[in-house]
Amino acid sequence: MEKAKAAPKKSAPKKETPKAEVEAPAKEETKAAEKKEAPKAEAKKADNDLSSKTVAELKDMAKDKGISGYSSMKKAELIEALS
User: Fold this and answer.
1) Which of 15, 27, 30, 48 has the fewest beta carbons closer than 10 A?
2) CA angle 75, 76, 77 (to 5 degrees)
3) Phi first, then psi: what are they for 69, rounded to 5°?
């Protein structure tokens, strides 16, 4: 017995989606916004770096910075003292 060959399926024509036009903010506005947010972003970045460290690493850092009472501090307290 011969099997009938199926006709190839036609794919639907692709619809082009219109690209949204986005206006770029003025350079001056962008620079001003970056300056205002930079200190916050820097502090947050430092917190993220510290939170990825172990308690032992944080205690070593606290010791190097001369922070007193570091040996009995919890991780959150060490991060606060170091930042």
Assistant:
1) 15
2) 90
3) 80, 10
How would you class 62 by CB atoms within 10 Å of its CB: exposed for 0-12, middle for 13-18, buried for 19 or more?
buried
Average pLDDT per block of 10 residues along the chain, 83 residues long: 64 61 54 54 68 93 93 93 90
At 6, the amino acid letter reads A
The predicted pLDDT at position 1 comes to 59
Number of H helices, E strands in the chain: 3, 0
* pLDDT for position 44: 62
pLDDT score of 60: 94
Give burial (CB, 10 Å; 0-12/13-18/19+) of 13. Answer: exposed
Q: How high is the pLDDT of residue 79?
A: 92
Question: Encoding tokens for residue 49?
Answer: 């770096």
